[in-house]
Amino acid sequence: MRSIYDLSLKDIENYLLLHDFKAFHAKQIFRWLYHKRASDFDQMSDLSKKLIGQLKEDFYISDLKIRDKQVSKDGTKKFLFELEDGALVESVLMIFEYGFSACVSSQVGCNMGCAFCASGLLKKQRDLKAEEIVSQALMVQRELDNEGNRLGNIVVMGTGEPFDNYDNVMKAMSIINDPYGLEIGARHISISTCGLVPGIERFAKENLQYNLAISLHAPDDELRSSLMPVNKAYPLAELMKALKNYASLNNRRLTFEYLLLKGVNDSEKQVKQLKELLKGLNAYINLIPYNKVSEKDFETSSEENALRFYDLLKKNGIAVTLRQKKGDDIDAACGQLRANKLK
User: Fold this and answer.
1) Looking at the domain covering 65-342, what would its CATH class be?
2) What are the tens digits of pLDDT across the range 323-339?
3) Helices H, strands E: what count in the chain?
4) What is the C-alpha separation between 21 and 19, in angstroms, rounded?
5) Which tens digits make up the pLDDT trace of 228-243?
6) Is 334 a catalytic residue?
7) Of 45, 100, 200, 260, whose Cβ has the fewest other Cβ atoms within 10 Å?
8) What residue spans in the chain does CATH classification 1.10.150.530 cover?
9) 90 flagged as catalytic
């Protein structure tokens, strides 16, 4: 049997036609799953008993188990979900002035090996299936249902590299984006890559309206390679070429994620390098305070230095935001809660 969360609206339409049912029932099924959050096919009261029986014969409605949940004083919630095979993945619910945002994982573990990241403490075991990515968002939405709130944004920025699991991530986002699915607008969906150039090139040709975010964290090859091994395979010149091609094909603004690491990448020198690197691009930098990982030696920049770095970027004509620190009192860093649980 197969989880029904793995099927797009078109998949269900095709399935229905194959079994001599009307295709329009697919929209009813999607509404029950994603709008009414049905946990049992028998709840789908406007479907015939014959159709419900057929669905029960071929599919099941899969739910992730909550193995742990941490709640920060700022409202951030970190979930540790258990998958059907016992593997653990993390998701985060964050509250911003523009609404509620869920950060979901795309892989069990991560092979990218970024020096500052807790995700890489545990190597990749496998890719997540589309339904496992969708289910993370759905579980976070169910949490918000209890408070009468609605999820407004999805970022694929948790454990794993999304472009290393391209097909499953894109299928999951299409279900999340579907008006009969979780109905989250394409421009409220962000996919973050550490810089896998083949994935960026493939994404550029799709002409999707999702936001593309690049985990940059350093503006020169020497420093970036020391922080992010992916830079040795795809150095900055190659990465920026792919991004400029993406921008020309899609006319979309790029986001560069930049963790502020004390004494590592937060000096005036890096500001000048960033200005040169991003010249001519429609882009902005999202400065992110670093959440301390006990196994790593990095520290976050002081608030004073973060503001100074922010001001210098603005004075150099670079569009920039400084994210409010979230979940500092819980295991909020990517992979941190899972790593601690498995210890």
Assistant:
1) alpha beta
2) 876 666 656 555 555 55
3) 12, 14
4) 6
5) 999 999 999 999 999 9
6) yes
7) 45
8) 2-60
9) yes
